[in-house]
Task: structure prediction
Amino acid sequence: MPIRLTNTLTGREEPFQPRHDPVRLYVCGMTPKFHPHVGHARLFVAIDVIRRYLEYRGYRLKHVQNFTDVDDKIIARANQEGMDPREVARRYSESYFIAMDALNVRRADLYPTVTDFMPQIIRAVQELIDSGHAYVVDGDVYYDVSTKPDYGKLSGRTTEEGQLVGARKELEPGKRDPRDFALWKAAKPGEPAWESPWGPGRPGWHIECSTMSRETLGDQLDMHAGGWDLVFPHHENEIAQSEALTGKEPFAFVWTHIGLVTVGGEKMAHSLGNFTTVAEVLKQHEPMALRLYLITTHYRSPLAFNEESLIAAGRGLARLRAALEGSVPDPAAVEPAWAQQARARFEEAMDDDFNTSGALGHLFDLAREINRRRDSGEDMGQVRGAQQTLRSLAEILGLRLEPAAESGATRDIAPFVELVLDARQTLRSAKLYREADRLRAELRALGIVVEDTPTGSTWRRARPGE
Ligand SMILES: [Zn+2]
Result:
């Protein structure tokens, strides 16, 4: 039985039939303008689970995920913090890796950035002009949507809400049609700019992904993934550009969209200020508890962020761990029939559009069965085999069941570090900056890195060699 998954492009659940080996997976990554929040964690954990399961089922993958390191919001953050935009992007890209490493999200094969691909992006814009799909207006370049009759096939939409279109049109007076979108934006004073045949400026967001995916993976992708909020206009515009550039359809055979994390019914977003960073969550909860919480809901559904469910996930994690208590990994252990059945049910759930909540249910059933048989003193060889099954199935979901020494240690010191940071804040409020700096340096000597942000100070452990 092939894996079945929902394709946003067709609106249906379909058998997964990749055209390439390795499977070409492109993911729209982060705009590194601040520390990653729970919404980012959900997106990248969900994609990590999909990737792990495809690999478990024998596929090889090439996973490319970009960083949008040139962006209005990065420039705004740089101005706010008195930093260079490149430094902002570097700093928060680093923060992304720290958070995702903690959540056991495996790294992509490649992380292209806009600044690294500028000549290729400029060439793609020129090709679209040359082929009649784009036009130049006073240093700006727009994609001409009227040249793509099937525009809107992913989202079923062709325009943004009326209000937005109106606002955009005023900002972009040269546009022939409100649906047209920018491929290149003429430089504004005080912003980073690159030389181009149309004058200094920077690329539009959509052409960046079309270019980076083509340069790193090829003309057509097996799977293109991202958050639900990217369906329109970002992914719709990627399709229009890429298909115009290559003449090949579809640009991506499968479109996979991950549901958003919501707070009070609104999406969690840096721009709305309603976010909780991954680092903040990890001060109170184990990384694996957050990961378990995030995959309890199906990846396509919205997830309302709440503390109680996060605590419940921590208890669930403890239940899974209890079933492994006193056992050590034993790859030679033979899987008994009852554990084979659990594995088959787990696979059945995952084959059905990566139904992680169903798969987790089977993991909990298996853990209960292990406990029952162990407590009643049944054949310990079978119990060990089933414990090995539990370990390997949890690993497919990226759940580390062996308690991690590092995360335990971090949890233990958290109250003490917080206490020192509180004291430092008091010193800063009293303008005793030299004493405050001394505390920061002392913490650094102890391997704790303190970062000051507009919303307060955060801390993390220094990495080896840092
Ligand atoms: Zn993208």
